[in-house]
Amino acid sequence: MTQSTTKQATRTAEQTALFVGCGDLAIRAAAALPASVRCIGLCRHPERLPDNIESLAGDYTCGSTFASLPQLAPDTIVFTLKPVGGRDSEAYQRGFLTPVKHLLAALGHHRPRRILFVSSTRVYTENDGGWVDESAPVADDDSPAGMIVAAERQLLNAGHPATILRCAGLYGGASARLTARIARGELSPASPVHYGNRVHRDDVAGFIAELIKREARGEVPADCYNLVDDNPAPQHEVDRWLAAALSVPVGEDPGSAADPGSRGHKRVSNRRWRSSGFVLRYPDYRSGYAAALGLQQERSAAC
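Request: output the structure for the sequence above.
Response:
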């Protein structure tokens, strides 16, 4: 784990948060934290991090990357990982299970207050449109979802305080794949109904920051939360709403529309997340996409 000399945040730290895999989600979470939290970001390209995050250059698939972890002594560790080298099971093993194993092995005698692991609702096996909560069956094989589950279990069984954050489809970032598909007139069919689940990046990042602040106050969260908005909705409904927002003409029957590529077919309950007292900024796709489209329009006008 090599500290970058180009970016060194200047904070009077009362606690330290280490973000392993410091991409967009981690950057948003760090921005929501007070100056009393020292934020450290571990990633391959630390030069891309903002000044409020101390940058560490490292590859989280390599065990040697975590050699200085006991000296850093982070109070909170946040995993925001992604598959490495593809989208198959091996890529998910390298990107999720391997980093967790390496970090746990490197902790030594240091015990963080909590480890947060950003997971995915794709781990649930439900595929017939039914409702699932945190107790629902999950993948138990060597599929990509199974590798995420294996990483979750490795962490929960390690003896450290840990919380799993299973996120639905993230939106609100730089990627505009969905809106680009809609702009091309490629809408999901109304039949058969296919439910989708989603959550705005700012709500996930806000909850990560909130858990870090609550941990400092001695509050104990649940061991798992589904991070999804209040409105699991048929994908064709979302597509038609976006088409109207983008002024894309849509007939009564869009015909042989493109498959949106969403995984699974389920409705994910956020009851436990809501019960935590956290208030979602974007409780449904309408409010979230309206904000995202507004930002896109403002950027376009500024160019």
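DSSP finds nine helices and 14 strands in the chain.
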